Amino acid sequence: QVQFAESGGGLVQAGGSLRLSCSASGITLSVGTVGWYRQAPGKQRVWVASISSSGNTYYEDSVKARFTISRDDAKKILYLQMNSLKPEDTAVYYCRRIGSGDSWGQGTQVTVSS
């Protein structure tokens, strides 16, 4: 059974940084593409960033140059380093295999104050 557990969120001031972690079980992170999504209050969940099996990374335009996705294959952990955070980054962040029908984890709340 594939499961994801996100952590590392919190309250931070604008301009601050956070590093999110996603612990995966039941899959090999280096197989396929995995990524981060976020859901802001009252909005749909949207894709933020992803990393392919070969290590290629992709970012939604609004987070380019601020967020960095990476993974530790041995530990089965996916990371999202978030720098220069803005209030509009406030959301619940989730991880999942891209294009999969995996169940969503509980997510981790990121709140950026202005």
Give the gist of this structure.
With 114 residues, this protein is mostly beta strands.
Notes on the protein architecture:
This protein has 114 residues and is mostly beta strands. Helices cover 0% and strands 51% of the residues. The protein contains no helices and 10 strands. Strands 2-10-9-4-5-6 form a 6-stranded mixed sheet, with no helix packed on it. It is globular and about 40 Å long. The relative contact order is 0.33. The mean pLDDT is 95.
Write the layout of secondary structure elements.
Blueprint: E1 3-7, E2 10-13, E3 18-25, E4 34-39, E5 45-51, E6 57-59, E7 67-72, E8 77-82, E9 91-97, E10 108-113
Parallel strand pairs: 2-10
Antiparallel strand pairs: 1-3, 3-8, 4-5, 4-9, 5-6, 7-8, 9-10
Provide the residue-averaged pLDDT.
Answer: 95
Distance between the termini: 40 Å
Helicity, in percent? under 10%
The whole-angstrom Rg is 13 Å
Structural class: mainly beta
Biggest sheet strand order reads 2-10-9-4-5-6
Task: Give unreliable regions as ranges.
Answer: none
Describe the global form: globular
Give the SSE string: EEEEEEEEEE
Largest sheet: 6 strands, mixed
Tally of alpha and pi helices: 0
Could you give the count of β-strands? 10
Percentage beta strand: over 45%
